[in-house]
Amino acid sequence: MFKAKVLIKRRNTILDPQGKAVEIGAKHLGLSNIKNTRIDKYIEFVVDTNNKKTAEDEVIEYCKKLLANPIMEDFEFTLSEWTPSQKEV
Amino acid sequence: MLSETKSSVSGKKPKFGIVVFPGSNCDHDTYYVLRKIIDVDVVFLWHKQTSLDDCDVIILPGGFSYGDYLRTGAIARFSPIMNEVINFAKKGGFVFGICNGFQILLEAGLLPGVMIRNESLNFVCKDIYLKIENNDTVYTKGITGKTSLKIPIAHGEGNYFADEKTLSELESNNQIVFKYCSSDGSISEVANPNGSVLNIAGIINKNGNVMGMMPHPERSSDSVLGKTDGNLIFKALVNNIFN
Predict the structure, then answer these.
(1) What ipTM was estimated for this complex?
(2) Which terminus of chain B, N or C, has less C-beta within 10 A?
(3) Taking a contact as any Cβ pair under 8 Å apart, which residues of chain A between 7 and 66 contact chain B?
(4) What pTM value is reported for the model?
């Protein structure tokens, strides 16, 4: 089995309203050096196969078709060997 | 002849300030109820202000301040006016948070606990019933003859949560003001619209001046809307503070 860790980032050229709104909070806090706040998505899940190629293919399909919108977002991920005994779900 | 029960000792009407954050959307409803139905003075306070304009009571209204980004109330809590609101509250000033206002009070640390997503994952907009758990607060004292109050809720994140220690403190200090109940006043899981721990719908701070509640009393204050239990809370507040 594998643990997948996926990071989905909105492209820098596309407005991130959430990042912009949160950065107003930073200004109100007096943190004047904070710039370009971007809020991305970090997603973890388990892929229940021992075949790394199969796992990669499924993660890519999951990312392309559901987790990310390829028109405005890029994704990257890592896959690491994982066993249920590691006390994560 | 001065027949208004709302007149304060000095003869002046109590002055309420409604804070307007970017994304507040119940500010005008609350203004309408306070001015037209409760008959007190009301002003809007823009969130960038650093003065509370000598208001006697501050209302943090419902809405979606800053788009609910990051966490509900998390950014509004750092709006410039909040320093004044926090100082005012710490000096015993009356601060009343409704829905998003309650969420802001939690983020600001003026009330304990947090709001998480409704257990159903749905935004819930409907009439619910509230049981008054503490009728010795300035917000509830004098509300009599009611087994329950019918007041609407409208929120996606109203699932109140706090750790065991906080909950036992809330209970032992009598800080739970409202619980979700059935129309007959019975408290059960069925009557809980969002999964709030202990059916909590509203709490007050230890000093009894800062209260937050998820239901919207301003939406059930005008008889035109077919329900008026909400104005009992505003009336109680005015009567208990100013008379």
Answers:
(1) 0.72
(2) N
(3) 17-18, 21-22, 24-25, 28-29, 39
(4) 0.89
